[in-house]
């Protein structure tokens, strides 16, 4: 009976260890933002490389692949930010600066993809604009979730600036989405 109790106690400890959420660190969030930044640059470069006329289906699908990779990273980043919890003023400033550094790249990609809607619509497979619309909508949702998590954990002194940054990016998504609706 004593051994059975020990065994059950051991299993309950193991189960608690497996189900307890792992607290993330600011360093992990910084790494997530660096990864997001790199993927935003990759996606922006793919969009810029897509010609205004005569683009290929392969290039359009590569953009879709880049978008889905970014979606996954944003989702993981949101999870890590949420697990990290509130951050200090210094850490909050560092994270905000990282995001501000690639804001122009995000906005450029959104302007470019909106402008290239006719090129995507001219491809021989008619579903590409719908696929891009879906990617834009999902990326917007994932970006808003990531921004909301960062804002929730930011010190009060940075919330207004972070909210404005998120608003600028959301507005860019709205414009790009409108081009495909």
UniProtKB/TrEMBL annotation:
Residues 1-19 form the signal peptide. The keyword Signal applies. Coiled coil: none annotated. The keyword Iron does not apply. GO terms for cellular component: extracellular region. InterPro entries: Cell_wall_mannoprotein_1 (IPR021054). Keywords: Signal. This is Hydrophobic surface binding protein. It comes from Mycena belliarum.
């Amino acid at each position: 009976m004593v051994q059975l109790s020990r065994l059950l106690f051991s299993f309950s400890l193991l189960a608690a260890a497996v189900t307890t959420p792992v607290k993330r660190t600011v360093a992990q969030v910084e790494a997530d933002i660096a990864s997001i930044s790199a993927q935003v640059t990759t996606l922006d470069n793919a969009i810029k490389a897509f010609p205004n006329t005569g683009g290929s289906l392969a290039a359009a699908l590569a953009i879709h692949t880049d978008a889905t990779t970014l979606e996954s990273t944003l989702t993981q980043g949101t999870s890590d930010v949420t697990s990290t919890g509130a951050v200090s003023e210094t850490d909050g400033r560092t994270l905000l600066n990282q995001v501000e550094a690639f804001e122009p790249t995000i906005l450029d990609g959104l302007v470019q993809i909106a402008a290239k809607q006719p090129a995507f619509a001219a491809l021989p497979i008619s579903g590409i604009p719908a696929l891009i619309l879906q990617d834009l909508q999902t990326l917007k949702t994932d970006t808003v979730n990531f921004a909301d998590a960062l804002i929730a954990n930011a010190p009060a002194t940075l919330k207004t600036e972070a909210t404005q940054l998120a608003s600028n990016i959301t507005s860019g998504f709205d414009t790009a989405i409108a081009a495909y609706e």
